[in-house]
Design brief:
alpha+beta; four-stranded antiparallel beta sheet; 12 helices; 58% helix; rod-shaped
């Protein structure tokens, strides 16, 4: 296969510079010959000297030296008597020697200035690229984003294509590259590509590959730039992986701590009603015939209440599991608020103790849209929570009203209340406010289940302080059933 001359030349940028210097000398020669013929004066060495300076400024010191030598021979051949030969008369020897010396000196000086400027520009570019890459790497904690930034930096440094491979993830830059070709590249089977391992602290974190562009002409700084980019990228990827591993460890520790706290709380909440049931049942079995009828009735009532409490607690755990698994089934139908109030009033009559439980409904026939069973369970959790934290003989008020297209039920207690900065947290699972610590403290599941159930029905659950002195108002809002 024949290689185009243009491609062959682009692969050799230094050769291109020397060819350009020869072209500049040729143009200077044509200009000098034309001027000599027009004026009849052959002392036009300054035109060749100008060509040498142009080559030095544009191309560097190497092409400038070539231009000086070519200019010397061209000037001698075309313009010094005898013309069209490399001989010269004795009086022209000094002119030719001075021309060659001045051309070499000025060309070398101008070329070195130009080369130093290019090196300073390359160093500035290297510093800028490294600074931007370091800043970007420091701000990233995702290894895929770090890989994308590394591939971008390699492509910029090599002025062509680049790619990074992290495990099975392939990250090319630009993105429009053939994945099969890149897989072959990383396997080491494509000419023109360089592949290196990304290593941090002696461990391989991935692979990087890049292809040097035809116009790149990598100098002394570019290979170092690529190596530094590789080292920075590898360190950033290792840091991201360590941060992720540390976050997983912390999450595992928090999960374990939460699990232990939950098991401790659950065991307590299960043990308390079971102990009451067991004690009451044992007393009835062994001494039932000796007890007064009122005592027996009280023991039976204790068994019933504690069994209902245990059943409600197990139901909360089951509902929380269903909510988290997305397996809660809703039976959408009209919810009669008055009917729910009647059932809950009878249910809590024996459990309220000396507290007053007041139900108020602003209008008859108030109906919401939702699941009647789930709404009753959610409202039951709120009322149970209010009774638990309200001292005897306080009052717990349950009020229903309408507001535009909403049916709102509010439960107001006279308990210690919750600080303003904790109001948004009381609906979180297992959250327990320090202001409500004590023997009445629960597992922190009740209100979180309330929020999940109400939101599953398309409603909203909120909480606010009843007054600056204390108390809590929990509002359950559901869409009102269309009349």
């Amino acid at each position: 296969m024949q290689v185009p001359i243009s491609h062959w030349v682009r692969q050799r940028p230094k050769l291109l510079g020397f060819l350009a210097a020869a072209a500049i000398v040729l143009l200077a020669n044509l200009a000098a010959a034309a001027l000599a013929d027009a004026l009849g004066y052959n002392r036009v060495s300054m035109i060749f000297l100008a060509g040498v300076l142009v080559a030095a400024v544009l191309l560097g010191s190497g092409p400038a030296y070539l231009a000086a030598v070519l200019g010397f021979f061209s000037y001698n051949f075309y313009l010094v008597e005898p013309r069209f030969s490399f001989g010269f008369e004795s009086e022209d020897a000094i002119i030719l020697a001075v021309f060659l010396a001045v051309a070499m000196l000025t060309g070398g000086l101008a070329g070195r200035v130009r080369d130093q400027a290019r090196r300073a520009e390359a160093q500035s570019r290297t510093t800028t690229v490294l600074f931007q890459a370091g800043r970007d790497f420091a701000a990233m904690d995702d290894e895929r984003r770090i890989g994308q930034r590394l591939a971008e930096g390699l492509a910029e440094a090599a002025e062509d294509l680049a790619a990074v491979r992290l495990g099975e993830t392939l990250i090319p830059f630009p993105e429009a590259q053939d994945p099969e070709l890149l897989n072959t590249v990383f396997a080491g089977g494509v000419e023109g590509w360089r592949v290196e391992r990304l290593t941090a602290d002696g461990r391989d974190v991935g692979l990087a590959a890049w292809r040097v562009g035809p116009a790149a002409g990598l100098g002394a700084d570019e290979p170092r730039l690529i190596q530094v980019l590789l080292a920075m990228g590898a360190s950033a990827i290792a840091r991201a992986r360590l941060a992720r591993a540390w976050a997983e460890v912390q999450a595992s520790e928090r999960t374990e701590s939460l699990r232990n706290a939950l098991l401790s709380s659950i065991s307590h909440d299960l043990r308390t009603p079971l102990a009451s049931i067991l004690a009451s049942a044992t007393s009835l079995r062994e001494f039932g015939d000796r007890f007064h009828p009122d005592v027996r009735e009280d023991l039976v009532l204790t068994i019933q209440e504690e069994a209902e409490r245990l059943n409600a607690f197990v139901g909360n755990l089951l509902n929380m599991t269903r909510l988290e698994a997305g397996a809660l089934e809703l039976q959408a139908s009209p919810v009669g608020i008055a009917e729910v109030f009647d059932r809950l009033q009878r249910r809590f009559e024996a459990r309220r103790g000396s507290r007053r439980l007041v139900f108020r409904l602003e209008e008859d026939g108030l109906t919401a849209s939702g699941d009647p069973i789930l709404f009753e369970q959610a409202l039951s959790n709120v009322i149970d929570n209010a009774l638990r934290f309200s001292p005897e003989p306080a009052e717990v008020e349950v009020a229903g009203r309408r507001l535009d297209r909403l049916a709102i039920v509010e439960v107001a207690d006279q308990g210690p209340g919750v600080p303003d900065d904790e109001l948004a947290l009381i609906f979180e699972k297992f959250y327990r406010s320090a202001s409500m610590s004590g023997p009445q403290q629960g597992t922190g599941l009740g209100l979180s289940i309330v929020k999940g159930l109400i939101e599953a029905m398309g409603g909203v659950a909120t909480a606010r302080r009843r007054s600056p002195e204390g108390g809590l108002v929990v509002s359950l809002m559901l869409p009102r059933e269309a009349e």
